[in-house]
Write the structure tokens for this entry.
Amino acid sequence: MFNLSLQQIGDALRAKKISSVELAQLYLDRINALNPKLNAYITLQPETTLAQAQAADVRLATGKADVLTGIPFAQKDIFCAKGWLTTCGSKMLHNFVSPYDAHVITQFNNAGAVNLGKTNMDEFAMGSSNETSHYGSVKNPWDTARVPGGSSGGTAAAVAARLCAAATGTDTGGSIRQPAALCGISGIKPTYGTVSRYGMIAFASSLDQAGPMARSAEDCALMLNVMTGFDERDSTSLQRDKEDYTRDLAKPLNGLRIGLPKEFFAEGLSDDVAQAVEAAIAEYKKLGATVVEISLPNTKLSIPVYYVLAPAEASSNLSRFDGVRYGYRAPDYTDLADMYEKSRAQGFGEEVKRRIMIGTYVLSHGYYDAYYLQAQKIRRLIAQDFTEAFKHCDVIMGPTSPSTAFKLGEKGDDPVQMYLSDIYTIAVNLAGLPGMSIPCGFGENNMPVGLQIIGNYFDEARMLNVAHKYQLATDWHSRAPQII
Amino acid sequence: MDENEIETARAQLSGIFTLIAEMQAVDTSGIEPMSHAQDLSQRLRSDVVTEANQREAFQAIAPQIEGGLYLVPQVIE
């Protein structure tokens, strides 16, 4: 049951081979048994889950079921869900039971999907290892001494360990793709503006984008059908016709032009990752694709640009957490200013405070032009690199992450080392392009390697097609960690 | 922050700003700053109330309220 695709689970539910309540209970039992080892979930509310499953069973019985009706998903704890504790991985929101639903949650609810729980994440999505969570690190199901990646590390670990049928993530600088790569699952960050950010707790608003994380590209496509669509409550939500992201899954890849950025295969890439990615490219050639070398000359600059822009936006977004209307308030204070200061000092973790400090500094008078404006200008150069590259290819491929999952604590004391590991994913967010990661083999210590697929704006259906055909020809995506 | 924490934070922030300084070498004269992934203008809508009043639900999760107001330490003597 735990290895079935979303389509197969839906078929079993509609054929009454299993009820949604039975299925949810199976998953809850499995979570109870395995989550203590992985710490993938922050919050479980079994009564809420089972009530949703019961409602799904009623809908299934009346023949009004949609594709995802009755299927148990997990939601990253960045999405506000009415009646659910929504912490965003922070002590600041340790007691925040959301009074409303994020748009993504509403979409899943309308589809009749069941919410199993809220998954662990780096605090306010700031991190690449899930070690900044106030609720403890998540362990990689392939080796519990290693990180699952971040910031959607709880989701990635839960999907890989079959603790949910699939789940949601968000990606500001690689937070869907990198944990998907490190845990051996599939995940796609769609074009900026495709999925509404309403009710998704903001980190860097011009970069944040939600997307599905699942065991296959086909599952991602079905979820994207539910998650996308115009929402007037998000001012950057795009008014476009509804798409069926499964429409091109079966298309042959003959004539597909794959661009390989030489900067993605240069110094800093581990040999084991390079080998697995090159083998995947060879497989694509067998499937009829051709390969062309391209250049993204400003790749290296994407890291400093991102670590100016994202903290700048975060410092503004996180100013709302002041201990007045919701969330953490310090127990002792002398006056209003002291209450703000102590609530924020005690409620935020180290990495979040670091980024707020960087953000306020780069936005301050006298430094604005040198840092913030300069970063925005280079951001345009980075986006133009992609526009140029897509004149010569249909999709861009390369590694998702320079190495496989590293050990817990290995990079904890050195933020720069941690930031450098985002080298291949960040530029995609800066440009607002869709990016995906799929499993393409194993490296040293039998840890999964991710292949990154970058598409042109709104080319998700083609990317999913490219990923799906590879998954029909290989079985990396169906390998499961031994914890199972 | 105690003395040790300040020293660690100082070293970490210096490292980050050394990384950020790599940007300064780039000639960006004539380049338009890019503030957003999509070149969009803000949508406008009619000036009508669209949200229902949920004051009670919102105040139910507040640290301290009284008579429908959020309480903070006294600011004016």
About this structure: The longest helix of chain A spans residues 369-389. The radius of gyration of chain A is 21 Å. Chain A has a mean pLDDT of 97. Chain A is about 40% helix and 15% strand.
